[in-house]
Design a protein that fits this description.
Blueprint: H1 2-20, H2 22-28, H3 31-37, E1 41-48, E2 53-62, E3 74-78, H4 97-103, E4 107-110, E5 121-122, H5 137-156, E6 161-166, H6 168-179, E7 187-193, H7 205-212, H8 214-224, E8 228-229, H9 234-244, H10 251-262, H11 274-280, E9 285-286, H12 287-299, H13 311-315, E10 332-336, H14 345-355, E11 359-364, H15 374-377, H16 381-394
Parallel strand pairs: 3-4, 3-6, 6-7, 7-10, 10-11
Antiparallel strand pairs: 1-2, 2-4, 2-5, 8-9
C-alpha cells in the first residue's frame, strides 16, 4: 500500500511538472490561445464557402506595441501543406511572423484551408465521408482563398490587402490568379515564401516516393477508404513531448524528421520548440492534395488535377488544363532558399522565368543551409527573411 501511494505521488509530481512547463502549455494551446497568452488581441471567425465548407479564420488585430485600431493595413497569411495558421504563431513573440506584423501596426488575418483542424466541418457532409474529401489545392485556390479574402475585406472595410503565402500557400495563390484573375486587384502586394509550382527537382524522399508510385498509391488509398491525413491528436502531443523535449534521448530523431522533408539545417532548428512544432503539425489535409503535387513532380507541368480516363468528363479534353501565369497586377516578391528540398532553386528559377517581369523582387535567403520550413520556424528567420519582406511591403502601404 505504501509503495502504491509513493507511485501515485510521483505521478502527481510528474503531471504537475508537465502542466507547469511552458513548452507543454504551448503544445496544447490553439492559435487563438497562443496569441492571447502572449498579450495579443485574437479573434476566431468562421466563413462558409459556396460549396459548404466551414473555414476557420484567425485574426490578430493588435498587441502590446500596437493596440487594435481602425484602418490598419491588412495582411492575409496562408499556410503550407499539412499545416495551419499555427505555423505563423507557434515560435513565439520573438520569432513568429504574426507577432512581428502586429507590432508593426498591421491587422493580421490567417487563413485555414478546408480539411485542416480549424476548417473540418461542412454544412451537409460528414468529415469522415469520401465526398467531404473530394478536393485538393485547386479548390483551396479557386474557392477557399477567394472566399476568405472577400470576407476579410468586407469585415475591415479595406479595398485591398497584402498576401503572404508559404509553400502550398504560394501554390494556391497562383491557382487563384490563373482561374480568378479579378482577385489580383484586391491585393496590395504578394509575398511568396518558398514559391511552389514546378517541382521537377524536388529532393524530399517522401514526395519523390509518392510521385514514383502515384497511381498505385491512389488506388491503394481508395481501396483502404483513406481520404485524408489526420491531424495530431492528444497521444501524438504526449509522444512528441516525451521524445522531442530538451533532454529526451530521441530529440535528434525529431529534428531529422523535419530535415528529411525540408532539407538539413541544424543551425536554425530550435530544438526546445520541437514538441510544440510536432503538436501543431501535421494539421490535417486531403490525400488528393499530396497526389496533385505528385502529379506535378511526374509531369513537370503546372496544371490541374489529372483524372486520367475521366479528364474528358471533367475538362472536355484528354489532358488537364494548364494554369496560366498571367494577370498578376500586384507586385510579386519571391523569397527562396538554396537548401530548400521542396521548392528547389532550380524549380523556383523555372517559375521565375514563367512569371517574367511580374516578379518585382527575387530574393535569395543569405544563408546556404536555409531550408523549406525555416521560412516559418527558423531561429533567425526575422533577420534572414522577414525584415526584407516587411521592407518590401512598406512600399505599398
Amino acid at each position: 500500500m505504501k509503495n502504491l501511494l509513493n507511485i501515485l505521488a510521483l505521478c502527481v509530481i510528474a503531471v504537475g511538472y508537465v502542466t507547469a512547463d511552458p513548452i507543454w502549455e504551448d503544445a496544447n494551446l490553439d492559435t487563438i490561445g497562443l496569441l492571447r497568452k502572449y498579450g495579443y488581441t485574437a479573434e476566431a471567425l468562421t466563413v462558409t464557402t459556396s460549396d459548404g465548407y466551414r473555414l476557420g479564420l484567425h485574426r490578430c488585430s493588435g498587441g502590446p506595441l500596437s493596440p487594435p485600431a481602425l484602418n490598419k493595413p491588412v495582411v492575409f497569411l496562408m499556410h503550407g501543406q499539412l499545416s495551419s495558421s499555427a505555423d505563423y504563431v507557434i515560435m513565439g513573440p520573438n520569432n513568429a511572423l504574426v507577432y512581428m506584423l502586429a507590432d508593426l501596426g498591421y491587422d493580421v488575418w490567417m487563413g485555414n484551408s478546408r480539411g485542416n483542424r480549424y476548417s473540418n466541418t461542412h454544412t451537409s457532409l460528414h468529415n469522415e465521408s469520401q465526398a467531404y474529401w473530394e478536393f485538393g489545392w485547386h479548390e483551396i485556390g479557386t474557392i477557399d482563398v477567394p472566399t476568405m479574402i472577400d470576407f476579410v475585406l468586407a469585415r475591415t472595410g479595406q479595398r485591398n490587402l497584402h498576401y503572404i503565402g508559404h509553400s502550398m500557400g504560394t501554390t494556391v495563390y497562383f491557382v487563384m490568379i490563373s482561374e480568378k484573375p479579378q482577385y489580383a486587384s484586391k491585393l496590395k502586394s504578394v509575398q511568396l515564401l518558398a514559391p511552389a509550382a514546378y517541382m521537377t527537382y524536388i529532393l524530399t524522399p517522401y514526395v519523390r516516393w509518392i510521385a514514383t508510385y502515384a497511381y498505385t498509391f491512389d488506388l491503394m488509398f481508395q481501396m483502404m477508404g483513406t481520404y485524408y491525413f489526420a491531424p495530431t491528436d492528444e497521444m501524438d502531443k504526449q509522444a512528441a513531448y516525451n521524445d522531442c523535449r530538451d533532454g529526451a534521448p530521441y530529440q535528434e530523431m525529431c529534428a531529422n524528421q523535419i530535415f528529411l522533408i525540408a532539407g538539413w539545417n541544424s543551425v536554425e532548428t530550435n530544438r526546445t520548440m520541437l514538441p510544440v512544432i510536432n503538436a501543431h503539425s501535421p494539421a490535417g489535409a486531403s490525400i488528393k492534395n499530396m497526389l496533385h503535387y505528385a502529379q506535378i513532380v511526374r509531369s513537370g507541368i503546372f496544371r490541374q488535377y489529372d483524372h486520367g480516363a475521366n479528364n474528358w468528363l471533367h475538362y472536355g479534353q484528354l489532358t488537364p488544363p494548364l494554369y496560366r501565369f498571367t494577370g498578376h497586377t500586384a507586385p510579386v516578391a519571391f523569397y527562396y532558399a538554396l537548401n530548400d528540398w521542396m521548392a528547389t532553386p532550380a524549380d523556383v528559377n523555372t517559375l521565375h522565368r514563367a512569371m517574367g517581369s511580374q516578379v518585382t523582387l527575387f530574393h535569395q535567403v543569405p544563408q546556404a543551409s536555409f531550408n523549406h520550413m525555416d521560412f516559418v520556424w527558423a531561429i533567425n528567420v526575422r533577420s534572414l527573411v522577414y525584415d526584407r519582406m516587411v521592407q518590401e511591403m512598406r512600399k505599398y502601404d
